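Form P-L/3: holo structure prediction, ligand fe (ii) ion.
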Amino acid sequence: MTRILHFTDAHLRWNQPGSADNPARLSREMPSILARLADQIPKLRPDAIVMTGDLLDVPNDVLVGAPDDGRAMDAWRCEIDADFQIFKDWFERTGVPWLAVPGNHDDEDAFRRVFGEPPIYTDIAGLRFFTYWDELGPDRQPHRSGARQSLFEAALTAPEHDLPQVHLQHYMIDPPTRARGWNYEYRNAAQMKRELDRSGRVRAILSGHYHPGSLAHGEDGLIHSLPPAFSESPHFFRLYDVGSTGEIKIQELAVV
Ligand SMILES: [Fe+2]
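OUTPUT (holo model):
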């Protein structure tokens, strides 16, 4: 059995000024909430910890390179790097293998500076993890293209990847979800879902982005799991116990 701890959408700001526009996202409380989660980890004994994006809440005007507060981008860059470093130090201190992907509120260049290039894959405790850094289109619908789409196809079909897999990405594949006028699932989500079901290799699609959270089931026990946003009280996360024959037990817990 392999146990994965999954949380998403922390929207942290600490060195960056201010807080998320949505007051439910407790950006400035995240360092102390993360410390409380860290206290629970030895008892939960996960084999891997995964975070599926929006580690930070970088303001949109800063993401497009034109800070509304008139400060230089360099000042923001230093603060964003320092906020990512809080997360990196936190992961390292858990002593557990970990993986993270950027979300649409993270600055991808800064994410790369602090965390490095994404691995092609990472093997942990008998599972092969793939991490996808996808993006939003101009219509705010997520899409996967180019090298990431090629990696997805290789994961599902190449002989060297014929292993039980877990895929991490900020965006969701299933269920199709439309809220506030936006599609939260990938542009070609129906096809991605069909290919996943056909491959039979993937145990779990772990995502973020849609803050209420969701859970859907594919073929052969495959789960599409998206915990409620960690930034919002009561700070949920999920534990998955992946059995050797593919069955998965899911628990949703809150930080205590
Ligand atoms: Fe988010």
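COMMENT: The mean pLDDT is 97.
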